[in-house]
């Protein structure tokens, strides 16, 4: 194995003092030792910054960057711009990795001459539950996937996910990539662009990355303002994907599924904007409406009956749609209060896409 290639590992850190030691320990104890470890303290208000500084005194490979809070996506951007390695990897500060993760992935990457390496992920819940995403756990078991197939797999968002943390990238892939500031689901905005720039990907069929799904993390927020922001970010990310696929004919086989997800996320967001208007501007409601109106629905496109009704009402007039949907919400609120019905008037991402968890 070639240990001369420097791998820069970027760890965005925000209020993770309880989890940071386990995460950093798993990185510094990698069997692949030629690492540069960048801890990006994203304006933490707890002891995270101090813990980062303490780790810097323990290991000369660690460098700490303190910055104002701008979200995990911009923390990754800061890390990518500051990295000096030819290869870049990311780890979330509440997760941890297998000791052989980078040794095995760098071997596969360099052996095959690929631009991206990725591995499988094991999801760990606070109650101890583990969700395995792979049935294959043998070291050295990997496959090479060419660019077009790789992008299609990312767009499918099933077998391959947009996660940045289970991958190693050649640094040059990030040239010209715009990290979305202050957005959740930052990976969903940029993953397809990165894979589009890569000539090929090597995929390792083993769970090296342990993704800790804790309550209160960005993807698990349960309060209404956070949920509304999540839905906005998710919908905008999927419209970006739809626009990308429309521009690239080689990926048109994914158009139907991307269109479905874009419409689904967008219409549910509009519904929730009407239920919770205090979290959105009127301008954004009409901007999102115009995005959806720009999408053509062809015969055979998958979309539920109720969503189709919303879609075609939007096509007629966003203003009319808003009036009719607001009237429907008032009726449901009254009938729920009178215990005639028991219908939810607002839905979370978990309700809309149960598999998304």
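^ structure tokens above, recovered residues below v
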């Amino acid at each position: 194995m070639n240990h001369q290639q420097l791998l820069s590992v970027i760890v965005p850190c925000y209020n993770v003092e309880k989890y940071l030691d386990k995460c950093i320990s798993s990185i510094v104890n990698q069997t692949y030792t030629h690492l540069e470890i960048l801890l990006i303290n994203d304006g933490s208000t707890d002891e995270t910054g101090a813990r980062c500084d303490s780790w810097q005194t323990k290991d000369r490979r660690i460098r700490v960057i303190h910055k104002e809070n701008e979200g995990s996506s911009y923390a990754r951007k800061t890390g990518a711009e500051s990295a000096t390695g030819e290869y870049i990897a990311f780890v979330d500060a509440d997760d941890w990795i297998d000791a052989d993760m980078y040794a095995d992935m760098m071997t596969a990457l360099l052996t095959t001459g690929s631009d991206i390496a990725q591995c499988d992920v094991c999801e760990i819940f606070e109650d101890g539950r583990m969700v395995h995403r792979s049935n294959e756990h043998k070291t050295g078991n990997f496959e090479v996937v060419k660019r077009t197939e790789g992008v299609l797999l990312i767009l499918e968002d099933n077998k391959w996910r947009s996660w940045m943390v289970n991958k190693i990238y050649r640094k040059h892939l990030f040239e010209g990539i715009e990290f979305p500031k202050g957005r959740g689901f930052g990976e969903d905005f940029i993953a397809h662009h990165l894979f589009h720039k890569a000539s090929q990907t090597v995929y390792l069929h083993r769970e090296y990355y342990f993704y800790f799904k804790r309550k209160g993390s960005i993807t698990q927020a349960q309060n209404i303002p956070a949920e509304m922001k999540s839905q906005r970010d998710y919908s905008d990310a999927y419209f970006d994907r739809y626009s990308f696929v429309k521009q690239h004919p080689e990926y048109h086989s994914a158009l139907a599924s991307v269109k479905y997800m874009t419409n689904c996320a967008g219409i549910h967001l509009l519904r929730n904007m009407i239920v919770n208007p205090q979290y959105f501007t009127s301008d954004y409601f009409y901007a999102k409406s115009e995005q959806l109106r720009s999408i053509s629905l062809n015969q055979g496109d998958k979309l539920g009956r109720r969503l189709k009704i919303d879609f075609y009402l939007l096509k007629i007039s966003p203003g009319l749609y808003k009036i009719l949907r607001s009237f429907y919400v008032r009726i449901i609120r009254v009938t729920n209060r009178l215990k005639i019905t028991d219908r939810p008037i607002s839905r979370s991402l978990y309700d809309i896409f149960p598999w998304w968890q």
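The chain has a mean pLDDT of 90.
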